[in-house]
Design a protein that fits this description.
Strand content: 35-45%
Radius of gyration: 25 Å
Number of helices: 7
Largest sheet: 18 strands, antiparallel, barrel
Distance between the termini: 28 Å
Helix content: under 10%
Structural class: mainly beta
Length: about 575
Amino acid sequence: MRLSNKFFSAIFFLSFFIFQLSFSQEALNSSEENYYDFLALQGFVERPTINYRTLSDSQWNLENLNGHIWENNNLGITFTLFEAQQPTENFYTKGIKQGIFLRLYPLEWYNSYNTAAPYGQNDGALWQGKGYNTSFTTGIRLEGYGFEFTFKPQLSFSQNLKFDYITPAYSPYIYDKDGNIIGDSIYKDYASEYGYYGVTYIDTPQRFGNEAFFTFDLGDTEVRYTWNNLTLGFGTQAIWLGPAKLNPIIHSNNAASYPKIDIGLRRQKIILPWLDWYCGDLELRGWWGKLSESDFFDSDDTNDHNLISGLAIGWSLPGIFDGLSVGLNRTMISKWNNISKYTLFEIFVPSIGTSGGADASDQRFSFTLNYLLPKSDFEVYLEWARNDFSPSMDFIIRYPFHTQAWTFGTQKAFDLPHNLKLQMLIELTFLETSADYDRLIAWYTTFYAHHKVTQGYTNKGQWLGAGIGTGGNSQYLGFRLYHKKGSVDFFIQRRNPDLDYTMFIDSKTYPKDNPETKGFAERNIRAMLDFGISGNYYFTDDLNLYGKFVCQDERNPLNLGNKDSSSIHRHNCNISVGVKYEL
């Protein structure tokens, strides 16, 4: 008698897996994580993190989650391979899971095509240049007795077709009329025909060479040990800091992964002993990682790596402040070939204005605030950040907005007829240099750059923080409609990329008191207006297809300095499709 494949599959799973657990770890910004976050907005589940988030920390407890709109779709399953029938009860074993558990991450294949220029952010190591781009990821996670092993790499390809971009700064391919290289000779080591166009050095190529290329990235891979909520890990998992949904200022998953070690406390209820007072939930994490530059920055092999040190603290307040959480984030970057005990631990020096903020360690700091009101299906959040440090408390009092940046957002959930759910998101981001640099200080600066850490706030050529990049601003309005088999999104976004360059260079190149160039500087302002629609659909419980179409109108894309530049447009269409299959 022939037995069907379904029969063998059933026997395999019955013998291999004991039962399924009602918790799940989700990749950053995946459709599943976004959906769980939407449920948290409505008060159905509690967020597993406060301020610091990775795939391993994004562990949602779904034990009491019933009757939600996607309940019939497979959002990921954790299986129990073995669990002690009579677990040992002592001080140590109470802090670990006494069993072995398995999570198979979905097979996911993403594809996009840009018709005229690069477009895309928060996509890890993938570079979405002009032409065809694709990435593939899957993974496995094994947990047992406090240990966690996650292997979830990313393989990507970029066609990287040619397009017009702004002339890079200090390029060896730009000559004067006599055939001499334009630019001071001290910058020749930073010359690249694909490089950044700003006044300072930043490792953010406008194009990653002139050929198609593959990239293999370890992605969300790590080894970790956790007892109770004390945790220590080594790996490459992406970090997301703060409450922003699109443009977190200090850290996101916009760039390629990097090796790091971290230690700290996952979200933990704090109760004062003897008094039995609940003081809220606390989260604390410190980490050290190794950043790398791209192949399109400089010709000096001795400075290819930087040390990044980070510290993140989150506190969810109790009592009458229930729903309110605050966070503090701080990162420092210093040269890898100059690591010492001092540079490793200066991240813990509390005062910004002390030696902990010296120029040898380029630092950024942010304060976050998040207020979630699930009874009203409403949330408002803020991240306020500063680059570098102020020389004195007197200066902080006189002008606290020095080198500031901020992201502000709000979201609201609505119940619609026919069991439909609507989510509205507004997010505003401002990364432009403060007014004192524009008007009072003679030298150029921008939020994600520093004159000593020459690669800027990047890893392998992409921004570590907000994907819109340095010196610009963004305004985003989006609507997401959830239905039983998926969701549909509509959004509009307006952006100014790197206005710091435009304000500093053009105001001096085309001074307003010169009648021949009057009005040229303001005409040089670059802007992008994006209209998009996206969605995903569960064709079966396990098979999810998703797609996106964005129409982008880019004004003055080449920063041309002439009176007609305001009429120059570049129209780019981004078309993306993907498939995800839960194993």
